[in-house]
């Protein structure tokens, strides 16, 4: 497995692989890898001959009050895990290479970036789309895999690629969960023991909604009311948002007619967790 820190070397490698007719799959990550990340690599293998994983904690997607400096890192362990998965290249650029002095170019998916997580994290998605486009220009992937864990991010990146005629195909991968239902996330490690126990409420509340829909209830307001009641019965959680949206457009829905995503963001102590599931109306 090659470890590349140089942008030029990464692009050179990718061009060479393309000239041999090889398809490249990219998995962008911020490191501190877990099973969720590794599942994306396995998915990428279904589509690609060569796998590139990038590890880059992207400063432009954190606001000044967020956890950029404390974001968990363990490069040594990440590299071991990636070797085991048979990854071809790990691309680990320095911040100063990705954002040299007088950097001033950003790409924004205008409306979608302002909704949901974008309300609390106003410049977050601008940072994400900018770094992803940069990574695409460096790695030149045929495919890029994104976890549905960050569903809004996945939809925004798909929109960016459509709007800017980017030829990289965006492939979604399902959410990997802990045994008790909590979606795996590098940020789960911030949770104290008693907070961790209550963190399952995200998934439980969405499962409750799913069961209501299975019983034939379609009115979002009534479903949300029950979810809020359940969440508020716990000690730690504080709701940031619960939204029911069309799975493709991310437009809010008030009645469940077709494939719908429940998007949820909840503070547990000082940790903000997100999750989502897809629900469908009873036939
Ligand atoms: P991150 O390192 O948090 O930026 O995540 C890198 C990629 O891994 C993103 O596409 C995430 O959506 C994906 N990912 C993170 N956690 C999970 C999970 N539990 N299941 C599936 N994909 C995930």
Describe the structure.
The chain folds into two domains: 2-173, HUPs (Rossmann fold, 3-Layer(aba) Sandwich), CATH 3.40.50.620; 186-277, Pantoate--beta-alanine Ligase, Chain: A,domain 2 (2-Layer Sandwich). It has ten helices and nine strands. The chain has helices at residues 7-19, 35-47, 75-84, 95-98, 117-120, 124-139, 151-163, 193-198, 201-214, 220-232, and strands at 2-4, 24-29, 50-55, 89-91, 143-147, 169-173, 237-246, 260-268, 271-279. The strands form two sheets. The chain has a six-stranded parallel sheet with strand order 1-4-3-2-5-6, with helices on both faces. A three-stranded antiparallel sheet has the order 7-8-9. It is globular, with a radius of gyration of 19 Å. The mean pLDDT is 97. It binds adenosine monophosphate. Adenosine monophosphate is lined by residues 29-30, 36-37, 39-40, 146-147, 149-150, 173, 175-176, 183-186.
Brief digest:
The chain has 283 residues and is an alpha/beta fold. It has 10 helices and 9 strands. The strands form 2 sheets. Strands 1-4-3-2-5-6 form a 6-stranded parallel β-sheet, sandwiched between helices.
């Amino acid at each position: 497995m090659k470890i590349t820190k140089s942008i030029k070397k990464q692009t050179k490698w990718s061009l060479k692989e393309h000239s041999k007719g090889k398809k490249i799959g990219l998995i962008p990550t911020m490191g501190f890898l877990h099973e969720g990340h590794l599942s994306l690599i396995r998915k990428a293998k279904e589509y690609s001959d060569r796998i590139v994983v990038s590890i880059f904690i992207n400063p432009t997607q954190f606001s000044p009050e967020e956890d950029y400096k404390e974001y968990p890192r363990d490069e040594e362990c990440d590299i071991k895990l990636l070797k085991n998965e048979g990854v071809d290249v790990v691309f680990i650029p320095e911040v100063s290479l990705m954002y040299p002095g007088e950097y001033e170019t950003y790409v924004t998916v205008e409306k979608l970036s302002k909704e949901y997580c974008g309300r609390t994290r106003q410049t977050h998605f601008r940072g994400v789309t900018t770094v992803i486009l940069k990574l695409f220009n460096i790695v030149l992937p045929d495919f890029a895999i994104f976890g549905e864990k960050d569903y809004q991010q996945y939809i925004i990146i798909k929109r960016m690629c459509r709007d800017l005629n980017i030829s990289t195909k965006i492939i979604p991968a399902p959410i990997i969960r802990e045994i008790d239902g909590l979606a795996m996330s590098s940020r789960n490690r911030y949770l104290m023991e008693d907070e961790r126990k209550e963190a399952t409420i995200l998934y439980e509340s969405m499962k409750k909604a799913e069961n209501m829909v299975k019983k034939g209830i379609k009115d979002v307001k009534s479903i949300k009311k029950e979810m809020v009641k359940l969440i508020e019965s716990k000690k730690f959680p504080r709701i940031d948002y619960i939204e029911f949206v069309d799975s493709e457009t991310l437009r809010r829905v008030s009645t469940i007619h077709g494939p719908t995503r429940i998007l949820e963001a909840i503070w547990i102590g000082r940790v903000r967790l997100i999750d989502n599931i897809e629900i469908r109306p009873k036939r």
